[in-house]
Specification:
This protein has helices at residues 15-32, 58-74, 97-104, 125-140, 169-186, and strands at 2-8, 36-43, 49-55, 84-95, 112-119, 145-153, 160-166, 191-205. It is of the alpha+beta class. It has one domain (2-205): Alpha-Beta Plaits, CATH 3.30.70.100. 37% of the residues lie in helices and 35% in strands. This is ABM domain-containing protein. It comes from Craurococcus roseus.
C-alpha cells in the first residue's frame, strides 16, 4: 500500500463549497483510477483541510496525483497557498472488519482521524519488530478502532506518519497517548513532530 497525506493550511472558500466539489468532482475521478483504495478528508483543529489517500502501490498513487493536481488547478480560488504533502509506502496497515463491511455494503459513515508525524525513525529491523509486535497490535485492539496506516516518508526515510481512524475523538486521543508512551519506552529517540486530527467530512473505502 502507498499513502498520500495532504494539508492545506489556508483556505479562501467556505468548507461546504470545498466539500461539495470533493464529493462531486474529485472523488468520482479518483475512484475510476486503478489501484485506488481509500480516501478520507477532514478539517483539523486549526481549520486546515487534510486528506488521506490510499493506493495499491506508488505507481497507482502517482497516476492519481495528477488527478488531484488538476482538481486543485481548477479550483485555485480554494487554496491561496501551497499545500503540504507527505507520501510513502505503508510499513504496516490494517482495516477493521466492521469498516470493511460498511464499505462493502455501500455505507460510508464518519470517523475520527488522528495523524501523528514522526522524526528520527530508525530504518532497522528492530523498528519493524517494535511496530509489528507492540504498536500495531495495541492500536488494532483499541476500543473503536477502524483503520491504521503507518507510512515511511519517500523523501526522507527518517520521517514517518501514522494515520489512525476511530469511532470517536476520545478513543483516538487515548490510543494516541498510549502509542506515544510506547515510543518513549521502545524507540526513545523518535520525536513526535506534529499531530493533526478531526472528524471526517468525507470517507470512502473500496
Amino acid at each position: 500500500m502507498y499513502v498520500n497525506l495532504r494539508r492545506y493550511p489556508k483556505l479562501s472558500a467556505d468548507k461546504e463549497t470545498i466539500h461539495r466539489s470533493v464529493q462531486d468532482d474529485l472523488l468520482p475521478r479518483l475512484r475510476e483510477r486503478e489501484g485506488f483504495r481509500a480516501y478520507c478528508a477532514f478539517w483539523d483543529e486549526e481549520g486546515a483541510g487534510v486528506s488521506v489517500s490510499v493506493f495499491d502501490d506508488q505507481e497507482a498513487a502517482h497516476r492519481s496525483t495528477e488527478v488531484a493536481r488538476q482538481w486543485v488547478m481548477r479550483h485555485q480560488d480554494f487554496f491561496p497557498g501551497r499545500g503540504e504533502e507527505f507520501a510513502g509506502a505503508c510499513i504496516a496497515q490494517e482495516v477493521s472488519d466492521d469498516l470493511a463491511r460498511e464499505a462493502s455494503g455501500g455505507r460510508q459513515g464518519s470517523v475520527y482521524v488522528l495523524i501523528r508525524e514522526l522524526a528520527n525513525v530508525p530504518g532497522t529491523q528492530d523498528t519493524r519488530a517494535f511496530v509489528e509486535q507492540r504498536t500495531l497490535p495495541m492500536i488494532t485492539r483499541w476500543p473503536g478502532f477502524k483503520a491504521v496506516y503507518m507510512v515511511r516518508g519517500d523523501r526522507d526515510g527518517s520521517r514517518a506518519a501514522v494515520a489512525t481512524l476511530f469511532d470517536t475523538r476520545q478513543n483516538a486521543v487515548a490510543c494516541h497517548e498510549r502509542a506515544v508512551d510506547l515510543l518513549k519506552e521502545g524507540l526513545p529517540r523518535v520525536e513526535v513532530t506534529r499531530v493533526v486530527q478531526g472528524q471526517s467530512a468525507t470517507l470512502v473505502v473500496q
